[in-house]
User: Fold non-specific serine/threonine protein kinase from Oryza brachyantha.
Amino acid sequence: MRHMPSHPNIVSLRAAYEDEDNVHLVMELCEGGELFDRIVARGHYSERAAANIFRTIVDVVQLCHSNGVIHRDLKPENFLFANKSEDSPLKVIDFGLSVFFKPGDRFTEVVGSAYYMAPEVLRRSYGPEVDVWSAGVILYILLCGVPPFWGDNDEKIAQSILRGGIDFGREPWPRVSANAKDLVRRMLDPNPSTRLTAKQVLEHPWLKNADTAPNVSLGDAVRARLQQFSAMNKFKKKALGVVARKMPVEELDKYVQMFHLMDKDKNGHLSLEELMDGLHINGEPVPESEIRMLLDAADTDGNGMLDCDEFVTVSLHLKKMTNDEYLAAAFDHFDKDGSGFIEVEELREELGPNEQAILEIIRDVDTDNDGRISYQEFELMMKAGADWRNGSRRFSRANFSSLSRRLCKESP
Assistant:
């Protein structure tokens, strides 16, 4: 962030302080809310409005790339408005997964968020083109309200991305201009070598003439979908936050001890062979393909092995997503009256007065159609939607990394 030039559309790093355990980053405060929340609050939402928003997003991508930075985690939640004024600048945040690059560099880490991952990320060989893909996914969502590649878990989302193919059949696509659809197609080109660069995207007729794009409303259905998509993300994030706070230190220490038992050569790292042997000894029936995936997902420094912190972090995330005790605690947090159900009023208390979005969440999660969310339905939502590749690298690291590092150092 210090490397990036000062820019009105990039959140600024004010200061950094370090103590014995942590580095504290003091960031610019963005009080204007998330991108989708602003869109749905405006009422009239048209292709022209989407084009003007999107031009800013691609400007940021171009600025990053021209300064040798790949953001690697572009998604709507990472764009905030600086303040509540109508002309507030839109700012990209969260450079936690960003990386420096030089022309020709290829990267292999599987990072980012499932819906926005380019196919070459899943194939583990990629460059700056991945940011253009992610921005293309955002554009698709901006124009119709749902992601182009869909699935009820990460594996199915990945399969959808690798299969490719873009649906322009459903509403409002028949009413969207040919130029807009052409840009979506060329940004979501599965071949990174023929995909548009950020500079070429800015030169595309749809963005060059953004002020003359159709000003006809994309329809209330699109606004409702955007609102629901945003609210569901907030619901899951809040639930994950409750789960994290319930995790006891003793649970953390158990995985630290397991790491040291599995680290046969005592070099402070687990190889694939040590992982396979250790999980077999611990009675975990994990196929080799899944152990390789676990290693790939948790290996944040890309050295092909897991250090103690990486092992503990991913183990905790996988554990808490399958541990009924932690999920039950998260469910109880929402079930304020102890009725055994999360009801509309309780969701409203947590997510604010987004009436349509809350009803959509209930509709999506409530499989027996009784108008409320039971524990079984909540559990299904959390386990099916757990983005563990992403969460193990971001959410869990934020909550447990400093503690696990300390425990790793203290253990023999």
Remarks:
- Strands lie at 13-18, 23-27, 69-70, 79-81, 90-92, 99-100, 269-270, 306-307, 341-342, 373-374.
- The two ends are 37 Å apart (CA to CA).
- Residues 13-218 form a domain with the Transferase(Phosphotransferase); domain 1 fold (CATH 1.10.510.10).
